[in-house]
Predict the structure.
Amino acid sequence: FNAAEVQPDTHEVLEAGVYEAVIVSSESQAMKSGNGMGFNFKFEVVSGPKKGKTVFAWITFEHRTSPDAQRIGQGQLSAICHAVGVMQLNDTAQLHNLPLMITVAVDKKDPSRNVITKYAAKPTTKPWGR
């Protein structure tokens, strides 16, 4: 391994705010507890001063022991689908590279991480007025 040939990981926690982003990758995964499954999404900011930065989100899709966790997760997935205009989802890859707005916060339990608190359609004008 020659470190001079690879860009170092420069993970940066984003400031709380609203960002235009796209989903660049997604993966379905069983929960560690064995009680269900969900999706890991990787979002990339596509405009503004933080362009190129990434944010990750886990969305619970199925939870056998917590109907509330399942309801919340499916509501989050529905918000993403509505934001990008995909109403019939067969594969999370259908959500890739479609612009949407994400509201990002710093995780209260782990300030080295971000959490996405809201997904919305991209407005016709940019939120910062340019």
Q: What stands out?
A: The mean pLDDT is 92. Residues 38 and 90 are 14 Å apart (CA to CA).
